[in-house]
TrEMBL record:
Residues 36-150 form the GAF domain. Belongs to the free Met sulfoxide reductase family. It holds the Pfam family GAF_2. The lineage of its organism: Bacteria, Pseudomonadati, Pseudomonadota, Alphaproteobacteria, Acetobacterales. InterPro entries: FRMsr_CS, GAF, GAF-like_dom_sf, Phosphatase_reg/MetRdx. This is GAF domain-containing protein.
């Protein structure tokens, strides 16, 4: 029997993202690898991925986890709020969030970080957990750093 895979630390996550994007300029390829890195690095996470802003909708991008909602109107749910307000949304109990979109009934908490190109929203980084109040200030700071790194590869 092999030993279980060891999860990387949150600081290692930032270093890993820097290493991955240093050798790749394609934004979608980087979103795919970053979603995999986040999914591996953060315990008690059941979905990690991206939505791209296309017109007035967030359209599903690369992710890790169960099937997800394909399109989310701007301003709707946690992802839509993050994109519309241009500010990270950290929600302790998604079932109490007005207009929450339940893509996965197992999700209990969520953090969504807007992705920007200058002053323009280009998408969001979305992470769900089956644990209420899973995400704190430390995870928010790390995920915002990851988002800033990824934004550099947007063309």
């Amino acid at each position: 029997m092999s030993a279980p895979a060891q999860r990387i630390t949150q600081e290692d996550l930032v270093d890993a993202v820097e290493a991955v994007i240093a050798s790749e300029s394609d934004f979608i390829a980087n979103m795919a690898n970053v979603s995999a890195l986040i999914y591996e690095a953060l315990p008690q996470v059941n979905w990690a991925g991206f939505y791209r802003l296309v017109g007035q909708e967030l359209v599903l991008g690369p992710f890790q986890g169960r099937m997800a909602c394909t399109r989310i109107p701007l301003g709707r749910g946690v992802c839509g709020a993050a994109a519309e307000q241009r500010v990270t949304q950290r929600v302790e109990d998604v079932h109490l969030f007005p207009g929450h979109i339940a893509c996965d009934a197992a999700s209990a908490s969520e953090i969504v970080v807007p992705l920007m190109s200058g002053d323009v929203v280009i998408g969001v980084l979305d992470i769900d957990s089956p644990i209420k109040a899973r995400f704190g200030e430390e995870e928010q700071a790390v995920l915002e750093r990851v988002a800033r790194l990824l934004e550099r590869t947007y063309a």
